[in-house]
Write a structure and sequence with these properties.
Chain A: It is a multi-pass membrane protein. Chain A: One of its GO terms (cellular component) is cytochrome complex. The complex is a heterodimer of chains A (about 575) and B (about 350). Chain A has about 575 residues and is mainly α. Chain A has four domains: about 300 residues, Up-down Bundle (Formate dehydrogenase/DMSO reductase fold); about 110 residues, Cytochrome c-like domain (Cytochrome Bc1 Complex, Chain D, domain 2), CATH 1.10.760; about 70 residues, no CATH class; about 50 residues. Chain A is about 70% helix and about 0% strand. Chain A has a two-stranded antiparallel ribbon. In chain A, helix 1 packs across helix 7, helix 8 packs antiparallel against helix 10 and helix 25 packs across helix 29. The radius of gyration of chain A is 31 Å and the shape is elongated. By secondary structure, chain B is an all-alpha fold. Chain B contains eleven helices and no strands. In chain B, helix 1 packs antiparallel against helix 5 and helix 2 packs antiparallel against helix 3. The longest helix of chain B is centred in the first third of the chain and has 46 residues. In chain B, about 45% of the residues are buried. The chains are: A mainly alpha (about 575), B mainly alpha (about 350). The interface between A and B is large, with 62 and 68 residues.
């Protein structure tokens, strides 16, 4: 709201950040671990007096320099360029908070460049000791870069006590700092081993080739094994909300985590095979496979980390759309548009409602939702919802789907956004009464489910389901799929939704579904008790009491048989009785 | 819509503003030196391709070896001033960055391609034959494009009056072409850069290429010629830039502000002095005069920026919550870094001597 938005409708900035970040992460971690690999491999060559290995190290240095210094260095700058373009407010906050951390990182970047140039160009021309020292300086500087950036990146996930103190060091040494540092260090050694694999396959001297492949393999394997407990430690110190996101509450994260786990397994297996069993398996193709697997592992980790702080860009501080959590209350009171820069509609009228809604969309939703693009397309996500349903959805959007930020602004603004998302994007009518569009079940479905499930997509999934099964499922949505939130609604609402869902596959059954309670009463009770007889006996009973009575009919009156229906059927029956005997809800 | 209403709120600083100004003014000229050397070395190498003779050919080859270093240091030494600009003017810079997002992002792939081409030019110099000249031409064109993109952003960030164009064109495709100062500003810095780059080539030739006198000699001659003729041209381009500035700003350099006027006078005097030593082909005295000249020029640039922003933004009004320890940590790191770099360079020099 403070900054303009780079608006290319079908193109999501988030995706661009992810792409650049993941590419940079591979190269930059290699730049760290590879430094250590070079020095130790050089030492191996000196110790074993092997010219072949020494030549290999020199060649590897060239590859290393061209990859890390040019591509690694510039993609690092690219991340900075991209985030300042997509998340200017967050970038500004990070830069202002950690400017001297970054400045120190720049110094190490400079030392890295000089050290690597000297290391490469003086290879074989310098005495071994000095050359090794230069290599160690390179590695030290590269690792310090990791150390510094690690603090800033993890600050975004777990700002810790910085939120109350604004102290540089408490933000820097935040709760995930150490586990992440260990994890990243092992990752970087693992990647160094993987890249070592690849370059080693180019070695002409057969004996040296096998030796260096085995050497690289040990590197990759040991680092990989060590990275597992570090990763576990990392996850265990995440705050509860982030952990539940990693645990599976967000579909994208679940997917990413799965990919990560699979490539981890694939990688470990392949490396073992490569090193231990088959000299003939030491082929370039397989080293590439290992490399891809390693990148998958690491990529999944980065993706998870990025996603785990949703809906924030800086956890608990700033939402993905650049709005500060601390300002939400004030803006809700005063209005968003009035407080925002870079908007033209400061006051909403009937005439500019859609345009104002568009501006609200731009500043509050576009950070994650494209318009007609690949990533979180807002058109597809909103197509099932009516204006009324959208309004209701927006009021509790953050509570229903934690990883979405809350709508920030006043009631009129919320209406304008809902209008844009329905009338603006889909030409839907702006009927003010949300219920007018259909029966209760339909309306509730739209308000609560349609954001993620269109009727067409849910229909085949529930083919052949009994009404009772559908009704029971509504009580335990997270158990069906961890990505689904609990549906907290009164039983009659759930009944209505169940009725609607049942009617999708059973068009004729719609009316009977709604009268499930009546049917059950007729089938099980009416033989002895007419409704009129029961009424005075149960006058004033709350529904809860009715419902629990149905569990122990024989205790109420030994002459009555226990009711053998399912819990859901008992719910229906209790609803029906409560409705007709005037019992309280 | 008034331009001021678009300007975002600046975030709180963690050290007094003067520190950031100091670091910015200290590091930006360092970036300029590296960038100038990079462009100048590229141009001299290109010109050498046009001359017949082994000495010229060898000069190109020697400059080819230096180019990847110069690109690396230009990028690295650009990071520090850009960081401090982010701190002082971030709210302005990010706004103009979004307006020209597409071009701004293009800087990265352009640089990656240019950087790799300098390595190809270096490592495959002999293999490339006559093609080398065209590889270099592409490098120069790419680097000059990057400079043009930077000139656009740096001039657009101080011109909030042009920002409301975003409402009609939010796709990141806006440049600052309508600004009458853009072209003279860009040509001013490019002319200056190529001139100083020529001087760098002369210095490089007379020191590191000393062992091959004929190469050293053509390098010195070409470099100094480039320096003097472009500096002469610069007197015209610089005047054009001065005249293109808004009148109020221009008049500050004409006596309106003692500091601005003094900077201009010192700048012109230094430039004339470098012309004198330059035409006499005195490399080292010219270098010693040019070093302060580049600093004076970047101070003048800062005065212009301050004047453009005066109606909209006063850096002294930004809230400050001082935390000294991170600043001290940075200064210590800087000292350590400089020490390590110095140690490594001494070791390298000793190795070369031993060889």
């Amino acid at each position: 709201m403070n900054y303009p938005i780079w608006f290319v409708p079908a193109f999501g900035g988030g995706l661009l950040i992810a792409l650049v970040a993941i590419v940079h992460v591979f190269v930059s971690h290699f730049a760290v671990g590879g430094g250590l690999y070079l020095v130790l491999a050089e030492r191996k060559a000196i110790k074993e007096k092997s010219q072949a290995i020494m030549d290999f190290v020199k060649k590897h240095t060239k590859f290393f320099m061209l990859l890390t210094m040019v591509f690694g260095g510039l993609t690092g700058v690219a991340i900075w360029f991209v985030i300042s373009l997509i998340h200017p407010a967050a970038t500004s906050l990070l830069i202002h908070t950690f400017v001297f951390g970054w400045a120190a990182e720049w110094v190490f970047f400079l030392v890295e460049i000089v050290a690597l140039f000297v290391y490469f160009y003086a290879f074989g021309k310098m005495d071994d000791r000095t050359h090794q020292t230069i290599g160690w300086i390179y590695f030290g500087a590269a690792w310090m870069s990791l150390f510094l950036i690690n603090g800033i990146i993890d600050f975004m996930l777990t700002p810790g006590s910085w939120i109350s103190t604004s102290n540089f060091w408490s933000g820097f040494f935040n709760p995930t700092f150490w586990p992440s540092l260990f994890f990243r260090s092992f990752m970087s050694f693992m990647l160094a081993g993987c890249y070592g694999f690849l370059t080693a396959t180019f070695l002409k001297d057969e004996e040296a080739r096998h030796r260096m492949i085995r050497y690289s393999g040990v590197w990759a394997l040991v680092s990989l094994i060590l990275s597992v407990p570090a990763g576990w430690w990392y996850i265990s110190v995440l705050p509860d909300k982030a952990r539940s996101l990693v645990g599976g509450a967000s579909p994208t994260i679940t997917r990413a985590a799965t990919v990560g786990a699979f490539s981890l397994a694939a990688l470990a297996g392949l490396v073992m095979v490569l090193i231990l069993l088959h000299p003939r398996a030491r082929t370039r193709t397989l080293t590439v496979v290992v490399m891809v697997a390693a990148m998958g592992y690491m990529g999944a980790f980065e993706w998870t980390r990025e996603a785990a702080r949703r809906p924030y860009v800086i956890n608990e501080v700033m939402y993905s759309n650049g709005i500060l959590k601390s300002e939400v209350e004030r803006i809700n009171r005063e209005g968003f548009l009035k407080n925002a820069r870079w908007v033209q509609q400061k006051e909403i009228t009937e005439a500019n409602q859609l345009e104002a809604g568009r501006e609200l969309f731009l500043h509050q939703c576009f950070a994650c939702h494209t318009v007609g693009g690949f990533n979180n397309d807002i058109i597809r996500r909103t197509k099932n919802m009516s204006y009324g349903a959208m309004r209701k959805y927006l009021t509790t959007i953050h509570e229903k789907r934690y990883f979405m930020p809350p709508f920030v602004g006043n009631e009129t603004e919320l209406k304008a956004l809902a209008a844009y998302l329905t009338a603006g994007l889909h030409k839907k009518p702006l009927a003010d009464d949300g219920g007018a569009a259909g029966d209760r079940g339909t309306v509730l479905y739209e308000e609560n489910c349609a954001a993620c499930h269109s009727a067409e997509s849910i229909k085949p999934k529930m083919k052949g389901w009994e009404l009772a099964k559908i009704r029971a499922a509504l009580d335990k949505l997270p158990a069906l799929n961890p990505a689904m939130p609990e549906y907290n609604a009164p039983a009659p609402d759930k009944d209505a939704v169940a009725g609607y869902l049942f009617s999708l596959n059973n068009p004729g059954a719609d009316s009977s579904a709604k009268d499930q309670g009546a049917t059950l009463y007729e089938e099980n009770c009416a033989a002895c008790h007419s409704l009129d007889q029961v009424k005075p006996k149960m006058a004033g009973w709350p529904k809860k009491k009715i419902r629990s009575a149905l569990d122990k009919l024989s205790a109420l009156n030994p002459a009555m048989p226990d009711y053998s229906g399912t819990a859901v059927e008992k719910d229906f029956l209790a609803d029906y009785l409560a409705k007709h005997t005037g019992g309280a809800q | 819509m008034s331009p001021a209403s678009l300007i975002p709120v600046a975030d709180t600083l963690t050290a007094p503003n003067g520190w950031f100004q100091f670091f910015l003014m200290l590091t930006f000229p360092l970036h300029l030196f590296a960038m100038n050397a990079m462009l100048g070395a590229g141009l001299v190498a290109f010109i050498s391709h046009l001359y017949p003779g082994r000495a010229y050919h060898e000069l190109s080859h020697q400059l080819a070896k230096a180019l990847p270093f110069l690109v690396a240091f230009t990028v690295n030494l650009g990071v520090a001033p850009l960081l401090f600009v982010n701190v002082i003017y971030g709210h302005l810079l990010y706004s103009s960055t979004v307006l020209m997002g597409l071009y701004w992002l293009a800087v990265i792939p352009i640089l990656i391609v240019a950087y790799y081409l300098t390595y190809i030019y270096d490592f495959s110099f002999r293999k490339l034959g006559n093609l080398a000249m065209f590889v270099l031409l592409v490098v120069l064109a790419l680097l000059l494009t990057v400079g043009f993109i930077f000139s656009n952003n740096m001039s657009m960030m101080i011109a909030p009056a042009s920002w409301s164009r975003w409402f009609a064109t939010p796709g990141g495709t806006l440049l600052n072409l309508a600004d009458p100062t853009l072209m003279p500003r860009y040509l001013h810095i490019i002319t200056g850069s190529l001139a100083v780059g020529g001087l760098f080539t002369a210095l490089y030739s007379t020191t590191l290429l000393k062992s091959t006198p004929e190469v050293s000699e053509v390098g010195r001659k070409l470099g100094m010629q480039l320096f003097t003729w472009l500096t002469l041209l610069q007197l015209g381009v610089g005047t054009w830039f001065l005249l293109s500035l808004p009148k109020a700003t221009m008049l500050r350099f004409m006596g309106g502000s003692p500091i601005a006027t003094a900077l201009l006078v010192i700048g012109v005097l230094l430039a004339v002095a470098t012309l004198l030593t330059g035409f006499k082909q005195l490399v080292l005295p010219t270098v010693w005069l040019t070093l302060p000249l580049v600093y004076v020029m970047s101070f003048m640039r800062d005065v212009v920026r301050g004047n453009f922003l005066a109606p909209y933004f006063d850096p002294t009004t930004v809230p400050v919550q001082v935390q000294w320890s991170p600043l001290i940590f940075f200064l210590m790191t800087l000292a350590l870094g400089i020490g390590l770099v110095a140690w490594m360079l001494v070791r390298l020099k000793n190795t070369k001597k031993a060889c």
